[in-house]
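Entry 12.
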Amino acid sequence: MPGPINKTVLVAAAFATTVWGRRIELIAGPPSHGPLAHEHNAGVLIFEKWLNRVPGIQARAHLNGWPADPAIIEAADAVFVFCDGSEKHLMFQPGREELVSKAVKRGMGLVLYHYAVEPPAQRGHQEMLNWTGGFFELRYSVNPVWEASFERLPHHPVTRGVQPFRIRDEWYFNMRFRDGMAGITPILTAVPPAALSERPDGLRSGNADVRAKSGQPHTVMWAFERPGGGRGVGFTGGHMHLNLGDPNFRKVVLNAIVWAAGGEVPAGGVPSEVSKDDLMANLDPKPARK
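Predicted 3D structure (tokens):
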């Protein structure tokens, strides 16, 4: 038999919802790559600014690594992660994988941005399929820089107010998805230039499967509705920080974060404005590439 309802807890929860609205935690990894690439901290800070202008949304940025207090993840309606992937992935360090799995199981949304869609080589794959529906798999997925043309967009809350656009970025493709794309809606889909499928074999450069799919469209952003409740998003672009200056690029990401948190995406999409000074703010001190 269940115990008596704790009215104090219910009142506290109702108060938190009233004060905070949807809680979104934006997590940035430590500095990585060269100037204006993988600007983890600058990226989450500018997303925090835009999201906190959306009614019913409370966003908070965490810089240079995973937040120390597990209660932050336990209480979040959604978590956005922008960090290095593979063995350095913030979510797959000791104790965190279980924390994220538990939060996802209760319905927490999860948005993985750029390199964060790649788990370690030998673990975390099924978790990624359960959390966001897809991931970057070594020797299967590839990571070239190319100009993607997004000519057709699906009818989905994440695409509200987004117009067809084209933009150059490090768009990963040939991602590994759940069988039959179950629960997954492709959001951004484009056909990579044929030359990108002919690159030599390597961990992230090329493989027979990519070559066999030359000329076919690939999904580079997707939205996932989990069978047990909750939402996940994978966005493979984001290598180039200045792409946030493109209104459609940033709108589709902002919409996705709000949607993943269970919030209402405005009819015209999440509004945002940006200046050159905004884009150049909070950059990590990185030496210029030789």
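Annotation: The domain at 23-266 is CATH 3.40.50.880 (Rossmann fold). The chain has a mean pLDDT of 93.
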